[in-house]
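Now read this:
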Amino acid sequence: MLPLPLEITMAARQFLLNITLREVEPPVWRQIGVPGDFTLASLHTAIQGVMGWHTAHLHAFEIDGKRYEERQDEDFDTGVPSLDEEEYRVEDVLAKGRSFTYTYDFADDWQHDIIVEDVELVEEADAGDLSPRCVDGEGACPPEDCGGPAGYADLLGVLADPNHPEHDDAVDFVGTFDPEIFSVPQANSLVYALLALEAARKAMAGG
């Protein structure tokens, strides 16, 4: 029998993801670190925060030909075979270099290309400090319910033209909006707020 090592060092894993929103100009992308023990449900919440969405619509992950999404009541079943995102962790289904897609709002069809840029091992003593965090990014998140990439392009055109007959309505819809502006601290604030809401909902449900 081989002797056991005197000390076994446990390590957690932090996944560095690059997220790019398809078919929009100016470009919109984010870089975020998430713990490997995050469920895909929590990853969805973190993506919502870092992108600037507000969890108002359905979503799905496509990873290695498999679809993962929130479990729905029969009345809201999309009819597409899928796995429950609550039952899978990031480190169960992802690895360095792997790419996958995340779709938000099946009507507007916001498709995100995501790649795992790196996986960092974190010593057990420091694992308690792991938390999702936005590292970098560019471009404002399109407003919710603006019609997907094509609708967003039309909206930007209307906002840029004060003489357009729909300009005032567009301003009323989005308020002050600059497609070039992005703030890492604001993104992290929204990530933390949405994850806190998720934790509160689970606690109330006894989950």
Remarks:
- Residues 1-9 have pLDDT under 50 and may be disordered.
- The chain has one domain: 12-140+180-205.
- Strands lie at 11-21, 29-35, 59-63, 66-69, 83-84, 99-104, 110-123, 133-138.
- The first helix runs from residue 40 to 51.
